[in-house]
Amino acid sequence: MFTCSGFEFDSTRGSLLIDGVEEPVFLRHKLILLLSYFLERPSTVISKEELLDAIWEHGQFREKSLSQSILELRKALGDSASSPKYIRTIPNKGYQWICPVIKETNDRKRMPSKPVSIGLLVIFFILTMAAGLLFFHDRASSVDEPLEKNLKVLVLPFENKTHTASMSWVEYGLSDMMASDLLSAPDLTVTPPVNSQQLLSFSDRQTMREGKLAEVLFTEYDFDVVISGVVELTDSHQVLIYRIAHVDGENLDGSFSRQDLAVSMPDIVSEIYRLIRPTGKRVDIPPYDYVPSAMHEYARGIQSLQGKGPALAQHYFGASVQIDANHFWSNAYLGVCLIYLGDWEDAEGIFNELLDQNDESLSAFIHYWLAVLNFRRGHVEGVISNINRSLGFLDKAPNSLLSKQVADLKATLESFINKQRSISSSFDASISMTLDEAKFSADRNLDEHLKRLTNEGHLALIFSLLIQLSDNDEIRFIDRDVYLSRAVEIAEQLQQPYEQALALTLRARLNIEFKSEKALVYLTQAKSLSSLLKARKLTKEILFYLKVFDINQMLMSYSEESKLRLVGLLDSIDLNELDNEKRLTVQSLRQSIQRLQLPSKG
Predict the structure, then answer these.
(1) 253 in helix, strand or coil?
(2) Chain center to CA of 171
(3) Which of 440, 502, 391 is nearest to 23 (CA)?
(4) How confident is the model over 125-139, as pLDDT tens digits?
(5) Which candidate, 330, 304, 276, places its Cα nearest to that of 171?
(6) Which residues have C-beta within 8 Å of that of residue 561, sequence separation ≥ 6?
(7) What is the pLDDT of residues 173-190, one digit of tens each?
(8) Could you tell me which of 219, 367, 514, 572 has the fewest CB atoms within 10 Å of its CB?
């Protein structure tokens, strides 16, 4: 156990206990190794070469992975390169841990074998709209008791080789059904296929067939099992050709031939589970009781969410409900689409009606999204209430993915209440809904990411990547501004006004930092969108930055006539309402005023 000013770090569990945050933050494997290496060597200047040799195996992308991991670790710790509290960059030499470290004497010096997950705190409060959406309902299982080891399973998107455009839904829709039904097994932690788009980053899925991609996923993300598949048409049957790759190097190949793979997914998943757990208890997934064509429309809706966005997806989910009024999950996802499209009252109405179905898995899902909706509205009490209700239903109907999403939202809310982060720096809880492994791979070329996602039409994931790129304070202002400009355009194209307002706010913050007058344009646009949505907390934050912009403008063109207005604006800011970042901004402004020898309070 290591203790520093502001946090405690358990190197065995890979957990950070940050002052003022109730829940621990769990780091991914590479970050645990990196932080442990620093803490074992406080005050030592450590070269990049030493870190790479100690933590990374030889490979083409090691240096990029190190740079991204340093950035990610700084964010987890609340640190920054420009004013470091923990990790100082020594130009042309490397890095140095600068905070005093206390190490408990009974702490064995060893690296953890497998952390739980990365935790939240990487970028904003919404990075990729659709990633957390891929949660289909938990289904009953006949497992009598869990096995000792909980396996981490990744389901990759299936490849559509039917040469039929109408079957494009198999890529995410069918693979998501498999991932969702696998969630019913209590001894599996399942990452849905949409998350893999952020993990994958080079060539095509043929590398999976060659075994190369699976090796990367096992090494970098600690998965135990990776499932891939290709869908073909043979006569009147649909054929799923699958590969189950194990971390120990064993690959299981086979196929399922069915008239309708979507309808047959429960028995397919039961067989897949038997292959993953050959010595385990049998899991029987109950058959779907929905009209087959409703299932197909649902799958098309899931597929659309990954690429074209909620505006198109809502039509597929709506069609599914029209075909089969009992397909409540399509109705639930229709509500999720409406949240993104800004139709918050209609979404709330759909959710409240669905709560009458007495379905524990559905209720857990709905209360989670009601919590997200209340977070966007700025209703803290509503967020707390819905989180607690979701957790209550999850106790009765466990689901590893949804549990992680609820935990991330809870941690984000606590950080927000404790004034550690602002609305515009809390993206995880409201858009990404991702498992932590689904951050964009640090050891890949991010430009290749953008090209590939653009070619495949994954607008939501492009938005996510652009926000992540813009958050790197070690790159040029002009590049960060371009990334945010594209993010604003994509949010507008997706017809997601809340995401657009947030991206505009981020762009305004960046332009304020670099003294650009364009910040006023972005803030004005963001305020218009936020006010229309009645997003109170975001509107309040935008108003704060409008004051900061005005103060900066008056400081740059200071005159005796503007003195009283300048002081009045600064003193009108209530420090008790500000998070840590804004307090530092106000402190900097006060120092600027003092240099001008102007009177001010505080």
Answers:
(1) strand
(2) 21
(3) 391
(4) 333 344 444 444 444
(5) 304
(6) none
(7) 999 999 988 887 778 888
(8) 572
